[in-house]
């Protein structure tokens, strides 16, 4: 009986560990940001992890920064679309959308960029951090009416107090959020830019996956 209890405990522990979310540190020249990737969007989580492993985000840039809107990193739209235009024989790569009602564009959310494809599929190597502005009930009512969605009381409260970009909800995949370093994200979103929203001084970052031991040490695991 004692052996059975130990076996069941170890099995439970194994399941608990495997169910824990993955955390990623963005090491930027402004400071560090820690992201939690959502288990509810496994394809985007795994896509991001694969890109990190392949070195896509080793010396990446926040190359499009729009104050009070988003800070975009990774590949630029123009680079992706121009490459596809030059090589029409190679089908464009997109990742099927994982748009979930409970995952929304609150301040600090991590999203996947895309073009105007009707399937709302994401680019493989473009991410953005949501900044946004506080919303009013009237603004949220208008979004609900326009998009046929319904915000929970908690979502409304967060949008009204912390801010975000509700007009992007249900159109882009959100697959994570900032859990540490919101002040650094604010600094990045406030940098001076040119007329094309490109930072005047490069904002460089490297993405590193945290080990489970480090996540536990930082008390990040739920």
From TrEMBL:
EC numbers for this chain: 5.2.1.8
Pfam families, A to Z: Pro_isomerase
Cleavable signal peptide: 1-19
Top-level class of the enzyme under EC nomenclature: isomerase
SUPFAM superfamilies, sorted: Cyclophilin-like
UniProt entry keywords in alphabetical sequence: Isomerase, Rotamase, Signal
Domain named PPIase cyclophilin-type: residues: 31-210
Record-linked InterPro entries: Cyclophilin-like_dom_sf, Cyclophilin-type_PPIase_dom, Cyclophilin_A-like
Alphabetized GO MF terms: peptidyl-prolyl cis-trans isomerase activity
PANTHER family: PEPTIDYL-PROLYL CIS-TRANS ISOMERASE-RELATED, PEPTIDYLPROLYL ISOMERASE DOMAIN AND WD REPEAT-CONTAINING PROTEIN 1
Name of the protein: peptidylprolyl isomerase
Lineage summary: Bacteria, Pseudomonadati, Bacteroidota, Sphingobacteriia, Sphingobacteriales
């Amino acid at each position: 009986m004692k052996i059975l209890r130990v076996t069941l405990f170890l099995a439970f522990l194994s399941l608990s560990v495997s169910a824990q979310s993955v955390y990623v540190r963005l090491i930027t020249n402004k400071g560090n940001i820690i992201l939690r990737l959502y288990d509810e969007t496994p394809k985007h989580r795994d896509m991001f992890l694969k890109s990190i492993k392949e070195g896509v985000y080793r010396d990446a840039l926040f190359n499009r920064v729009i104050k009070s809107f988003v800070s975009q990193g990774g590949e630029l739209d123009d680079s992706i679309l121009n490459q596809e235009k030059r090589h029409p024989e190679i089908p464009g790569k997109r990742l099927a959308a994982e748009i979930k009602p409970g995952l929304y564009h609150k301040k600090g959310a991590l999203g996947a960029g895309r073009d105007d494809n009707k399937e709302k599929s994401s680019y493989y190597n473009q991410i953005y951090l949501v900044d946004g502005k506080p919303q009013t009930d009237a603004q949220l009512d208008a979004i609900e009416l326009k998009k046929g969605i319904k915000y929970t009381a908690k979502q409304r409260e967060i949008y009204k107090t912390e801010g975000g970009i509700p007009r992007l909800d249900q159109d882009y995949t959100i697959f994570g959020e900032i859990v540490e370093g919101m002040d650094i994200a604010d600094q990045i979103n406030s940098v001076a830019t040119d007329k094309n929203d490109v930072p005047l001084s490069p904002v460089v970052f490297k993405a590193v996956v945290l080990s489970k031991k480090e996540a536990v040490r930082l008390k990040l695991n739920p």
